[in-house]
Amino acid sequence: MNDTSLLEFSGIDMRFPGVHALKNVSFEVKEGEVHALLGANGAGKSTLIKILARVYQQTDGEIFLNGKSLNAATAQNIRQYGIDFIFQELELVSSFTVAQNVLLGDEVTKGALLNHREMSKKAQETLDQLIPGFIDARSLARDLTVAQQQLVCIARSLYRNPKILVLDEPTSRLSSSEVDALFSVIDRLKKERNITAIYISHRLEEIYRIADALTVLRDGEKVVTCKVNEITTKEIIRSMMGKEIDVTKKMENLAPGYGEKPALEVRGLSDGKTFGPIDFDVFKGEVFCITGAVGSGKTELIETIFGLRKAASGTLKINGKDWVPKSPLHAKNRKLSLVPEDRRLNGVVYDFSVRKNISLVSLKKLSRFGFVVSVKKEKEVAQKLVEELSIKTAGLETASKFLSGGNQQKVVFAKWLVGNSEIYFFDEPTVGIDVKGKEEIYEIIHGLAKEGKSVIVTTSDFDEALRASTRIMVLFAGKEKGLLDSETAVKDELLLLTMGGKVNE
Ligand SMILES: Nc1ncnc2c1ncn2[C@@H]1O[C@H](COP(=O)(O)OP(=O)(O)OP(=O)(O)O)[C@@H](O)[C@H]1O
Ligand SMILES: [Mg+2]
Question: Which residues, by Cβ under 5 Å, contact ligand 2, an ion?
Answer without folding.
Answer: 46, 88, 404-405
